[in-house]
Amino acid sequence: MALPQGEAKAAAVRDMFDTIAPRYDLVNRVMTFRMDVGWRRATVDTLGLAKGATVLDLASGTGDLCVELAQRGYRPVSVDFSFGMLTADHSGVPRVQADALRLPMAAGAADGVTCGFALRNFVDLGAFFTELGRVVAPGGRIALLEVATPPNPVLRAGHKVYFGSVVPVMGAILSDPAAYRYLPRSVAYLPPDAELLAQVTAAGFDDVERRLLSRGIAQLVTGTRR
Q1: Could you read off the pLDDT of 151-165 as tens digits, one per residue?
Q2: CB 173 within 8 A of CB 189
Q3: Where does residue 132 rank: exposed (0-12), middle (13-18), buried (19+ CB within 10 A)?
Q4: Rounded to the nearest 5 degrees, what angle is found at the Cα of 23, between the Cα atoms of 17 and 25?
Q5: What percent of the chain has pLDDT over 90?
Q6: Domains plus CATH for the chain?
Q7: Phi and psi dihedrals of 97, rounded to 5?
Q8: In sequence order, which residues have a C-beta less than 8 Å from that of residue 198 and are 6 or more positions away?
Q9: Per-residue pLDDT at 1
Q10: How far is the C-alpha of 82 from the C-alpha of 191, rounded, in Å?
Q11: Can you list the alpha helix ranges (DSSP code H) found in the chain?
């Protein structure tokens, strides 16, 4: 079955996250063996901004990254396309329902941006990076967390079985079967690594880096607004 594109993808993603919001945190913790907690900490570690900096967390989900940002002394804003996710947000920070490709913020309004596990869910990834270039002030930082494919062939084979076969079963038991069949397949939306980094650079960012986490199960893309 082909993956949805364009507006059909946007509607499908919004509806899917509305559906899985109530048990989203539980499934994340179970299927990553709580490694997602450490990945979020690593994401915030890379910002290196002054305390009090305004950081937009895009596709914020239930607010896990916002909690981490607030604990570090930042001023996070939770932004998500899904009203269901914003309803389940437990961070206590300001919440905004918005499309990350068309943010209701002025140019240069943010000192930083974080985003967790959502790059593959955007309709137009290039447009998303361009929007980051618009809203992040010069010298600001971005830290984008996403799933990845391990470079080691043995780990890659095991990850393929786990992510492609075990995770959908877990999701079906704990939450929504259709959503957790889609999520492993959605990795196909991600461009090749070099192309992804080139898109971020073209959107106005320097020092663009891609760091693998947990031997390549996840990746963290960072950059500084020039």
Answers
A1: 999 999 999 999 999
A2: no
A3: buried
A4: 90
A5: 98
A6: 6-225 (3.40.50.150)
A7: -90, 120
A8: none
A9: 67
A10: 24
A11: 6-20, 24-31, 35-45, 64-71, 83-88, 125-135, 153-161, 167-174, 177-185, 193-202
